[in-house]
């Protein structure tokens, strides 16, 4: 999922841009929006996006000033600017700030879609390159690595375990020596015995007492293989006393390996500091968390809910919550929330609720912007809210 932040001081243009992004097949999620650069700069550090789309001229901080601040703090953010024809030359000079592309007003839907799709592809390519670089760096220090592929294209399914021996360390702590010198070799040998067809890497974690085990399989695992995998985790867990281990859900492809590793360590740290029992399997715990998120959205769909709200309520990072929810339900949290809202809006527009005023429906299902609600409703149903009600009443 690619996170997008929008900055535009014209409400109608911002709404139209959001609607266009929602209509794309590319997996995008609008994680925030602002009406000026200063507001955006205050919001972005709470959840840095992958893509920043900003108007070039706004009151107070300009789009270029915002981009300069954001890219200095978050170099991986891909900036796209919006400008009028009068700012064309000004926009072109922005390419020196590593702006990926620019959109001219009035926005042409096909041009917007093309630019956003190309930007999304660039972000995915960068992530893949980061993963390839990561593997190139860690392979030389992995024990007896077998058949390391030049790329990762031959591996279709990954499973990852993050292991901590002793206390979780923080930036102000010194690393401790490995508890057992041959742990890496023992873990790799155990994986090879149970899964001779798999690739196995045992690599350093963040500190000297942390390890990451990455298993790559040519295809998805069968139920029997899953059972063998559980035996492997248990065997590895028992190698060293006072160990905590978290295990990922299956990952299809390598695009989210780095993100998953960071999520696992966050999850590990939260479990250790909360005195939760030491053996912790990520897929079981996260399914429960995903269910809680689903229940929360079903119960509160009629009020505004943002990803920041979910993060504050469940005490996990936004990226972690999105990853957990998508793994459980194959849909992003806010997209699922909108599906609930549209379903309830259809009920309010049915002949059973003819006393509900059309203008109140969007607010009753949790939308703060009635224009955005109308566009989303039409996208999902093929009809505007008024057309849907008219059809419902005529069907009596």
Automatic annotation (TrEMBL):
Residues 291-391 form the HTH araC/xylS-type domain. InterPro entries: CheY-like_superfamily, Homeodomain-like_sf, HTH_AraC, HTH_AraC-typ_CS, Sig_transdc_resp-reg_receiver, Tscrpt_reg_AraC-type_HTH. CDD domains: REC_YesN-like (cd17536). Keywords: DNA-binding, Phosphoprotein, Transcription, Transcription regulation. Residues 3-120 form the Response regulatory domain. The modification 4-aspartylphosphate is found at residue 55. One of its GO terms (biological process) is phosphorelay signal transduction system. GO terms for molecular function: DNA-binding transcription factor activity; sequence-specific DNA binding. Pfam families: HTH_18, Response_reg. It comes from the Bacteria. May play the central regulatory role in sporulation. It may be an element of the effector pathway responsible for the activation of sporulation genes in response to nutritional stress. Spo0A may act in concert with spo0H (a sigma factor) to control the expression of some genes that are critical to the sporulation process. This is Stage 0 sporulation protein A homolog. It comes from Diplocloster agilis.
